[in-house]
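Sat 14:20. Reprocessing the chain from the morning session after the first attempt stalled halfway. Input below, unchanged.
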Amino acid sequence: MKQFDLDNDPKITPGFKVPEHYFEQFEDKMMAQLPQRMKVIPLWQRRPAWIASAAAIFIIAIGTWAYFAQDTAENVVADQEYLAYESDVTTEDIALLLSDEDISAVENSLNLYHTESEAYINEYLN
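Finished this time. Tokens:
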């Protein structure tokens, strides 16, 4: 390959030339092509702009809620899996973390101290 020197070799002409006085006449030509009076449409007085803005806010709100709801659901599943496979956690450890109100709410929801459930349990055990 032939070595070349930019300082000593003849310059190559690009082949493109700007017409004479192009930049001096450009603004005048452009302004002549534009209409004399332009119609200005305010952006916020149009109904579609308000509807599009409301729709965008709605989509952002739903997306934010879905993101945080998904994150919470994944954390709950991870916590359940941890508790399911953790061998050191016993029912006594869980009972220590619950308050008396929590324990009574669980007992009420399971109907442990109702006569019907006692009769059913006794019948089942017999």
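Residues 47-87 form one domain.
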